[in-house]
Amino acid sequence: LPMVRVSQNIKNVPVDGIISAVATDVGALADIPSWARSTGNEVLKTDREDKEIIFYIKRVK
């Protein structure tokens, strides 16, 4: 589900804008960076806080 939200939300951000996404599934550690590469966007940073994984994603195009 985080992937769907990221895909939808990135469209609402201007180019060079940054969004954050929170996931609890460790599979997102592979899925979100893979999605970013395939769509031409960039994961700037990944943080872990307890059971949450926080991604900071820059819209490149």
Task: Provide key terms for this protein.
61 residues, alpha+beta, Translation Initiation Factor IF3, three-stranded antiparallel beta sheet, 34% helix
Q: What's the arrangement of secondary structure elements?
A:
Layout: H1 2-10, E1 18-23, H2 28-39, E2 42-49, E3 52-58
How does this model look, in words?
The structure is a single chain. This protein has 61 residues and is an alpha+beta fold. It has a single domain (2-58), classed as 2-Layer Sandwich (Translation Initiation Factor IF3), CATH 3.30.110. Helix content is 34%, strand content 34%. It contains two helices and three strands. A three-stranded antiparallel β-sheet has the order 1-3-2, covered by helices on one side. Strand 2 and strand 3 form a beta hairpin. It is globular. The chain starts with a helix and ends with a strand.
The number of strands is: 3
Residue share in β-strands: 25-35%
CATH architecture heading: 2-Layer Sandwich
CATH fold title: Translation Initiation Factor IF3
CATH superfamily: TusA-like domain
Most strands sheet: 3 strands, antiparallel
Report the radius of gyration as a whole number of Å: 11 Å
Q: In angstroms, what separates the terminal alpha carbons?
A: 22 Å
Question: How many domain regions?
Answer: 1
Judged by helices, strands and strand pairing, the structural class is alpha+beta
Helix content: 25-40%
Enumerate the strands of the largest sheet in spatial order, edge to edge or round the barrel: 1-3-2
Average pLDDT figure = 94
> Any idea of the CATH class?
Alpha Beta
Which blocks of ≥5 consecutive residues have pLDDT under 50? none
**So what's the overall shape?**
globular
**SSE order:** HEHEE
Query: What's the tally of helices?
Result: 2
